């Protein structure tokens, strides 16, 4: 009997092997399926069996990845300073040791051995957002902001934080800590080519700008990525997150949540708000993508989940300040925020270039919220020039919020170009610009002057261009103003009537269990090795990986799976659109009512704008007048270098475009001092641009006089550099005509200098001593001439002379009495 059974099994196995299709290796693992009579006659049954095996294996592998996710979450929480940095770092300055302690710290990123920091290179400081997640997203992978800075040879620093804030810590404490960190970085790089460049992501973006408004002298160029600055702005029908404050009755719910947390706000609630924006991704797409690509997707998924699950906390006073003054009150861009020591936080006080990077695919910080601060602060281009501020914006067509500072593609493209051209950005004259990044092709002129595979160009823009993106809506502002007023009322009622009772009932133990039972934390906690049902999946998954039989790409059941997934995703997107449309209509219906606005203290008949413009202070008016008077004296000052810069700016005054090729060629301009720093070069360019804006004709007519003391060779060398720089990018006929006029000016000046050198110097005859004359005799000799008193250098004149030799530094923030 055993022998007969063995022979039968061998015959069955041989028949199965003979009938196993080459494209169905799963039948070799399950030979009994091949001998079923319906397998040969029903191909769809074979496809179903193949799909069933694959689906079972995928399910086990998926469960194992989720088990690893839970274990990773537990291990991450156990770390003393959890972060997701992909680079080694050491703590340089701990915020706990500062006069105003906080949970932030300054870390120095250790550069790789193959790319050490270059001598005198400008340091970069990357500040990570504290918006519910832990730190490290700015250096999450090699192709990141930190990676781009290190690759370019810049010393790099990172500002991170611990999960728990210092008791009593405030937003101002963090601002003072960031200022102390920059002072430390500056002291460590006394020979740097410029002040530190600072990158702020998301929440860190607006916090960095607040610090820069308070201490502008510490900052080099500032790059803010995905940072909301104008919180009422948005496109109708597309940005529903801004309505949540009004639909929830204002910021009283923030106070309640902090009270239930025993004085701390759980950042997991912020993360849940992000997830609620896209239910299709949260409930289906993200996990389905892992399931469908479980053989290759696990490392990427686990890496991101390590960041996404690292929830942190904020003090109640911090979160309330943020919601009341920013998310609901929108007081940052109207310069209404005043620090406890009397400093008004006016973003117009920032003297460093501000680079804003945003995306049309970002549903958390859409372009109107990222760029709306420009239209909030400035009414026209003249105001931008009068405040001597440089703003550069760059937009992405489709990438999402996290992709702005996480995606490898943006790290290789946008962030690398920002870093490589940071000096070009730093020397831009005052005004609004747009940075555009294009592919470098074989036909690109001067390809040798371009670093990498992309070329960055910068075009001049106007306030109207920004307004076309932001699309300000006074009626919408009126509704949000009503929300802000009613929020203050509701918060006052809560604090007076409810808060004492809540605080009396809350204990540290109840706050602990409330945090532990948060839905997001439960999703991580419930499936790990601590769960006895999850632990066995590790061994099962390992065996499946050894005998993995993926389904064929043309399997019809796989196509059905994909179609079902698409239908589920579309259904959730449909639900999202209906929900968001309902939010918007409810918001407009409630806060658009005249009686609701009247209850909020808004007057409907006076027609006054509810969006407060920051205005112009008497000090600024006096500053502008003094600057204009000072520039009148600067029209004829300078030599060949100043003349070349002025001529180049004049040629491109209408085109308003420059790129990295021109800047790299500009380094060839002869300098009066070989060690001119980037700060001095920046001041020179901004000064010449200001003179051309003030009096273009007079500025150009002054060029021959500026060249009067230069040699012919030096004049022609500068003229050649101007010509090369002008042709580095395509120019139109008008610009070419202006260039010919400029070159003619320089050639005439060179010819005059040659004539002076050819004329022999005359020998002066010996002077005859003059007889001293009295005042009366002088008056008698020229009765019609007025007497001229000897000149004295007044205090104002001394200040003016000093200002001509030293570039103007940043104005200090004014204290408000």
Give a short overview:
Residues 771-783, 797-808 have a biased composition (Low complexity). Helices cover 54% and strands 9% of the residues.
Describe the protein in words.
Residues 752-817 are annotated as: Disordered. InterPro entries: AB_hydrolase_fold (IPR029058), DUF3141 (IPR024501), PHA/PHB_synthase (IPR051321). This is 3-hydroxyalkanoate synthetase. Residues 771-783, 797-808 have a biased composition (Low complexity). It comes from Pandoraea pneumonica. With 817 residues, this protein is of the alpha/beta class. It folds into three domains: 89-238 and 330-480, Rossmann fold (3-Layer(aba) Sandwich); 241-317 and 487-539 and 552-594, no CATH class; 618-758, no CATH class. 54% of the residues lie in helices and 9% in strands. It is built from 36 helices and 13 strands. The strands form two sheets. An eleven-stranded mixed β-sheet has the order 1-2-4-3-5-6-9-10-11-12-13, with helices on both faces. It has a two-stranded antiparallel ribbon with strand order 7-8. Helix 8 (203-214) links the parallel strand 5 (197-201) and strand 6. The longest helix is centred in the N-terminal third of the chain and has 36 residues, at 43-78. The chain starts with a helix and ends in a 12-residue tail after the last helix. 39% of the residues are buried. The model is unreliable at 1-24 and 766-811 (pLDDT under 50).
């Amino acid at each position: 009997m055993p022998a007969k059974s063995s022979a039968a099994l061998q015959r069955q196995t041989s028949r199965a092997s003979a009938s196993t299709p080459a494209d169905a290796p799963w039948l070799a693992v399950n030979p009994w399926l091949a001998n079923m009579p319906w397998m040969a006659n029903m191909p769809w049954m074979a496809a179903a069996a193949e799909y069933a095996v694959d689906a079972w294996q995928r399910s086990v592998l998926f469960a194992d990845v989720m088990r690893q996710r839970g274990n990773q979450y537990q291990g991450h929480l156990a770390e003393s300073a959890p972060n997701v940095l992909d680079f080694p770092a050491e703590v340089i300055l701990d915020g706990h040791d500062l006069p105003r302690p906080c949970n932030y710290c300054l870390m120095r990123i250790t550069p790789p051995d193959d790319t050490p920091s270059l001598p005198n290179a400008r340091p970069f400081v990357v500040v990570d957002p504290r918006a519910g997640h832990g730190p490290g997203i700015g250096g999450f992978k090699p192709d990141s902001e930190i990676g781009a800075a290190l690759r370019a040879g810049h010393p790099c620093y990172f500002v991170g934080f611990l999960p728990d804030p210092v008791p009593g810590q405030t937003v101002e404490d963090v601002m003072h800590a960031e200022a102390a960190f920059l002072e430390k970085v500056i002291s460590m790089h006394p020979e740097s080519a410029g002040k530190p460049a600072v990158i702020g992501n998301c929440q860190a973006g607006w916090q960095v700008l607040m610090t820069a408004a308070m201490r502008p002298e510490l900052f080099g160029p500032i790059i803010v990525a995905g940072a909301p600055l104008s919180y009422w702005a948005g496109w109708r029908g597309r940005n529903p997150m801004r309505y949540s404050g009004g639909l929830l009755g204002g910021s009283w719910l923030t106070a309640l949540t902090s009270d239930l947390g025993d004085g701390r706000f759980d950042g997991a609630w912020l993360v849940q708000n992000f997830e609620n924006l896209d239910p299709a991704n949260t409930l289906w797409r993200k996990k389905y993508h892992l399931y469908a690509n479980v053989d290759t997707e696990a490392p990427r998924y686990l890496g991101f989940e390590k960041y996404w699950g690292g929830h942190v906390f904020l003090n109640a006073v911090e979160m309330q300040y943020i919601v009341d003054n920013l998310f609901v009150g929108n007081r940052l861009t109207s310069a209404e925020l005043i620090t406890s020591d009397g400093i008004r936080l006016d973003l117009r006080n920032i003297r460093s270039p501000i680079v804003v990077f945003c995306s049309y695919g970002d549903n958390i910080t859409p372009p109107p919220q990222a760029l709306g601060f420009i239209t909030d602060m400035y009414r026209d281009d003249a105001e931008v020039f009068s405040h001597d501020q440089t703003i550069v914006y760059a937009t992405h067509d489709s990438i999402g919020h996290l992709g702005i500072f996480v995606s490898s593609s943006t790290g290789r493209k946008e962030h690398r170009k920002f870093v490589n051209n940071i000096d070009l950005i730093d020397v831009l004259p005052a005004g609004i610009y747009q940075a555009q990044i294009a592919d470098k092709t074989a036909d690109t002129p001067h390809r040798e002057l371009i670093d990498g595979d992309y070329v960055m160009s910068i075009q001049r823009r106007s306030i109207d261009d920004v307004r076309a993106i932001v699309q300000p809506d006074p009626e919408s502002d009126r509704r949000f103003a009503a929300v802000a007023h009613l929020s203050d009322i509701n918060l006052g009622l809560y604090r007076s009537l409810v808060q004492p009772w809540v605080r009396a009932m809350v204990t540290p133990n109840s706050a602990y269990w409330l945090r532990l039972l948060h839905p997001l934390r439960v999703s991580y906690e419930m499936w790990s090795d601590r769960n006895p049902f999850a632990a066995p999946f590790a061994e099962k998954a390992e065996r499946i990986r050894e005998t993995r039989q993926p389904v064929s790409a043309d399997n019809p059941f796989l196509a059905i799976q994909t179609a079902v997934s698409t239908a589920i995703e579309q259904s959730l997107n449909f639900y999202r659109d209906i929900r968001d449309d309902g939010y918007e209509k409810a918001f407009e219906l409630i806060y658009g009512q005249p009686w609701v606005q009247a209850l909020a203290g808004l007057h409907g008949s006076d027609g006054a704008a509810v969006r407060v413009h920051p205005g112009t202070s008497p000090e600024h008016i006096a500053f502008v007048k003094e600057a204009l008077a000072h520039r009148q004296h600067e029209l004829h000052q300078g030599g060949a270098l100043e003349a070349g810069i002025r001529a180049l700016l004049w040629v491109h005054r209408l085109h308003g475009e420059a790129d990295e090729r021109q800047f790299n060629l500009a380094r060839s301009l002869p300098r009066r001092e070989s060690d001119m720093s980037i700060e001095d070069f920046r001041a020179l360019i901004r000064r010449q641009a200001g003179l051309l804006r003030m009096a273009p004709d007079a500025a150009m007519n002054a060029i021959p006089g500026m060249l009067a003391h230069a040699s012919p060779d030096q004049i022609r060398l500068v003229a050649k550099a101007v010509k090369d720089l002008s042709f580095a990018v395509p120019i139109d006929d008008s610009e070419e005509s202006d260039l010919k006029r400029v070159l003619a000016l320089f050639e005439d000046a060179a010819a005059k200098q040659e004539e002076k050198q050819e004329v022999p110097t005359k020998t002066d005859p010996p002077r005859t001593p003059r007889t001293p004359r009295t005042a009366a005799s002088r008056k008698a000799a020229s009765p019609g001439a007025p007497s001229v008193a000897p000149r004295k250098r007044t205090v104002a004149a001394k200040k003016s002379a000093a200002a001509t030799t030293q570039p103007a530094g940043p104005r200090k923030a004014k204290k408000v009495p």
